[in-house]
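QA checklist item 7 of 12: single-chain prediction sanity check.
[x] sequence parsed
[x] length recorded as 173
[x] structure emitted
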Amino acid sequence: MTSQLPFGGIATLPIIITLATLSDLVEELIKTLPSILRSIGDDPDVTTAATIAAWKRAAGDGLRQHAVPVSLKDGTLVVAVADAVWQKQLRAMISELIYKTNVILGQALVKQVNLVVDPTVVNPDRRNSSEQSPTEVPEEISSAASVIADVQLREKFIRAAAGTLARRRDNAE
């Protein structure tokens, strides 16, 4: 009795990639970015993709989820952050991050970084949750919030107040 092998007689084996192996593969890919950029030339899409990958690597695990690169144009990398606090923190580190990104790229593609506050880019779940379930807020809270000039701060205040009221209501039941 003979058994049929799939794919034209070639026996297939399950491929198991460990996290260490995956990390090694990513490291090798990152190391090839300079040669990829040299061989591709002036393709803006490839340059942007490589710069975004390099930024994420330079930022590391701690910052990667708080600073999301969005675009690259004329040497300016646009990076979205969740709020003004992260914007201020990153401003203090921006020179180091530009340097590290350019070292990974093997050339100075990033001249400056524009940090924009956009929590929906940094945390897409936040956008979906705010669109799905608007919480009814008492008039007193809306009225108090209306004097807050900063729109994002006003929204945070309303969300915090609504959350507190919801918890109190749940605890009372």
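[x] summary fact logged: The first strand starts at residue 67 and ends at 73.
[ ] second reviewer sign-off
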